[in-house]
UniProtKB/TrEMBL annotation, chains A, B:
This is Thiamine-monophosphate kinase. Keywords: ATP-binding, Kinase, Magnesium, Metal-binding, Nucleotide-binding, Thiamine biosynthesis, Transferase. Mg(2+) 3 binds at residues 40, 85, 225. Substrate binds at residues 63, 281, 330. The lineage of its organism: Bacteria, Bacillati, Actinomycetota, Actinomycetes, Micrococcales. Pathway: Cofactor biosynthesis; thiamine diphosphate biosynthesis; thiamine diphosphate from thiamine phosphate: step 1/1. Mg(2+) 2 binds at residues 56, 85. Residues 162-255 form the PurM-like C-terminal domain. The keyword Iron-sulfur does not apply. Belongs to the thiamine-monophosphate kinase family. InterPro entries: PurM-like_C_dom, PurM-like_C_sf, PurM-like_N, PurM-like_N_sf, ThiL-like.
Amino acid sequence: MTSSPDQAPVVADLSETELIASFAPLLPRGRATLVPTGDDAAVVAAPDGRFVVSTDVLVEGHHFRRDWGTARDVGARAAAQNLADIAAMGALPTSMVVGLVLPPTTPVAWLLDLARGLAEECAPLGVGVDGGDLSAGERVVVAVTVHGDLEGRAPVLRSGARPGHVLAHAGALGRAAAGYAVLEAGLPYTGDPDTAAVVGAFLRPAPPYAAGPQAADAGATAMMDVSDGLVRDAGRMARASGVEILLDPVAEALAPDLARLEPVARRLGADAAAWLLTGGEDHGLLATFAPDRPLPPGFRRIGTVRAAGPAGPRVVPSPADAAHVTAPGWDHFRA
Amino acid sequence: MTSSPDQAPVVADLSETELIASFAPLLPRGRATLVPTGDDAAVVAAPDGRFVVSTDVLVEGHHFRRDWGTARDVGARAAAQNLADIAAMGALPTSMVVGLVLPPTTPVAWLLDLARGLAEECAPLGVGVDGGDLSAGERVVVAVTVHGDLEGRAPVLRSGARPGHVLAHAGALGRAAAGYAVLEAGLPYTGDPDTAAVVGAFLRPAPPYAAGPQAADAGATAMMDVSDGLVRDAGRMARASGVEILLDPVAEALAPDLARLEPVARRLGADAAAWLLTGGEDHGLLATFAPDRPLPPGFRRIGTVRAAGPAGPRVVPSPADAAHVTAPGWDHFRA
């Protein structure tokens, strides 16, 4: 131990083996885990002979700030945004591996809390944290790869939206963006329930995991998670499908969401409808369904699909909302 | 474009969509790829109802330096060290996903070369680069997750070494450590074939991928890749198996390897035997076999397994080599 006894230990005080021994017991084994973490690789069940895989990286100072929330929040959020990608294919998440870059001065307690956050999001879903890697670096980086089981379903891609289909959404919209705006403005939030709730939505998004496989079973023709904002992600779906997607006016389609965001928007002098249309990181599910199909639980109709016009495949917000769509969504390098 | 026309473009000059469009065509689709990169997640075949998964992170300034080698080297090395983990389970690698953190000032050409390096290592093995994520950050981070197919085999774990078994190794030992020492010393190397070869071994390790499944088929009882040095990794195998592992004298068991390293060691005033015993990053395969079994192609006997003594499970270098084992191997946080 290089730290004095009265200081909290940092990761440089422990060997890699000691660090792994300290957090490995906190990580859940999943229902599909055959050989867990600890060998060169883990072995995971893929009962239908396929697996779904997605990866996402969170970088300190870009995707999270250590002074904005706890390490549990960072772990839960890193897990949630990846698990949402699996749900968006119509699959059940089964297994996760996590690559971590940590500055040597990171408190060991922060690392353990990160592991607890990962576990809090994974364990209730039966997802194992089945492997990982630890490295030193200047900033914390959390690189998560998550796997899922389609249970025999066909994967639901972004490219299946067809003219006449209904566009629907499950989960939150605009709430993480509102929370981010509160934190960035340094606005006190613990005393105000509306404000505290959106900060919580940013620090710990709650994707509607079960809605993914349910949507697939209900005949979803296209699906994706909304990570970069409704307008930007619906635009991606439109281009992948070669269609035009028309969004309904948010004041009608998303009236309750708008009403819940407005008190926070007023405190900040911000635009609640813009959060709904362009705010990312809530990781709800955007899907299309044939018009004769009832929407599965949790989904709300927010638009329609029609053939692409002379302008080509694109998303078209309601004319009533045009003034709220100024930024098309997040770009990691140009934000 | 924010750069002037006579400057090479950097990643901040392109949108994330443009960047992805620029490198995606360079990435191979694998023989197991069912739905490639471009959706929320990829879908990969797992014919025997299981998959093997491992993850590793490379951090600029810790695992590589951009002024030491090309981006192709970085990409190939990131792929190789992960693919070796799959081979070490006795599996065939099938699919990779890559999370990238890039400073906004990274030349686009560097990113494209990184993709080429990944492809050069993956394509000959039929491995697809099936997904990824791009984020901005202060230093380059390459987070690779790789998957493999056991083709019906039982995974070969670290924990199967039993008293009486033979310890064997396939691939290079000490060469990457020698190359690292050359680069760190700033020694010129292009004019000297021995020195250039070890630098090449550090920049682009060449794990014996095929030897992994072959060892499994030949009855390997334990296996792992040597990423942190022979003594340290054999110690891990000993502890996982609850045995003592005795290493043969390197001057006998690894005489040709020693002879090839000695000219470089002399130039640096370094210890070639220490590179063999404690140098990591060559990603050869360490395996144990029952004594009555012939070793599969590429494996050389380098030690024996016996029951753990009063000191408990451990690795014991030959008494002839004790003076060469000063550092037990790499620790990411305390090195």
